[in-house]
């Protein structure tokens, strides 16, 4: 059974208190039947993966709006995929902890948050009237592997990376009054609750790195790099482009080669990459995965 340090318990106590004060049930906090705003985008158009490309230039306004709708649905699908993995990692970690510790109890509070978030994202996809995107065989296998084996530094780094990327997009969405009200409300709820998760992961990651040996850290760097590449891969799923009449492979290739989108994903991951870099987790052979994902 693991022990807890005073600073870890202090953080967890504060996060548990914050959870009681600011948590939402998306099934009642969101008006799921409210009509959509005609012509409004679902994300800032300059954050679209095809913004600035020839494909974007050839699209009408309505087609661009439709593309951002499918990109939002794709991101929500990826969010459910990752949150399902995250919940299983946290529960597996909880299994070996002192159940009376605040640190362990906050892990359960985070799992409760993620359950609601996954329901919220699923309801969003349904309301958009589109099909969820499925993880590739490679990403599906990676998720199964992470949920079954990830511990220590690479577990918390993977959590932090995915949460920080989604958080960056959603902070911008929630503040943009020109966007669809539904997506702004979904983003607002997720940002408020994910702020607690980010702090929990950031502080615990530092502790895990400090107690890891060089071989363990070398392994963690590889796993973290693979997780980073998987997160970005889910944002350019071929089905997103097929849904708006673009060949899936062509759309994905155009997105990954798009300098605007490369800048966007570097922006979205900047805080996480900086934190991981300071801890020595973005280096060595694992850099091939970060470069493949255009994150460094």
Automatic annotation (TrEMBL):
Coiled coil: none
InterPro entries: AurF/CmlI, Ferritin-like_SF, RNR-like
Cross-referenced Gene3D superfamilies: Ribonucleotide Reductase, subunit A
Pfam family, one: AurF
Origin superkingdom: Bacteria
Molecular functions (GO terms): oxidoreductase activity
Protein name: Membrane protein
Annotated source species: Virgisporangium aliadipatigenens
High-level lineage: Bacteria, Bacillati, Actinomycetota, Actinomycetes, Micromonosporales
């Amino acid at each position: 059974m693991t022990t807890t340090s005073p600073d870890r318990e202090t953080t967890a106590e504060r996060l548990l208190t914050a959870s009681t004060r600011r948590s939402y049930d998306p099934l009642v906090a969101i008006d799921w039947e409210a009509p959509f705003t005609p012509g409004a985008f679902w994300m800032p158009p300059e954050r679209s993966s095809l913004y600035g490309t020839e494909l974007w230039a050839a699209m009408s306004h309505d087609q661009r709006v439709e593309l951002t709708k499918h990109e939002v649905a794709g991101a929500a699908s990826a969010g459910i995929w990752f949150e399902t993995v995250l919940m299983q990692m946290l529960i597996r970690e909880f299994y070996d902890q002192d159940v009376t510790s605040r640190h362990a109890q906050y892990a359960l509070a985070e799992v409760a948050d993620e359950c609601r978030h996954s329901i919220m994202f699923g309801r969003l996809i349904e309301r958009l009237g589109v099909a969820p995107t499925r993880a590739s065989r490679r990403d599906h296998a990676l998720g199964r592997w992470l949920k079954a084996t990830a511990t220590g530094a690479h577990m918390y780094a993977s959590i932090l990376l995915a949460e920080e990327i989604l958080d960056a997009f959603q902070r911008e969405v929630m503040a943009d009054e020109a966007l669809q009200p539904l997506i702004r409300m979904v983003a607002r709820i997720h940002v408020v609750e994910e702020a607690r998760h980010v702090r929990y992961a950031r502080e615990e990651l530092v502790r895990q790195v400090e107690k890891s040996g060089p071989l363990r850290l070398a392994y963690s760097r590889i796993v973290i790099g693979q997780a980073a590449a998987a997160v970005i891969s889910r944002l350019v799923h071929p089905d997103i482009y097929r849904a708006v009449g673009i060949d899936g492979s062509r759309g994905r290739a155009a997105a990954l080669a798009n300098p605007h989108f490369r800048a966007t994903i570097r922006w979205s991951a900047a805080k996480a990459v900086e934190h991981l870099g300071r801890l020595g987790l973005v280096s060595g052979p694992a850099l091939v995965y970060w470069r493949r994902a255009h994150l460094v």
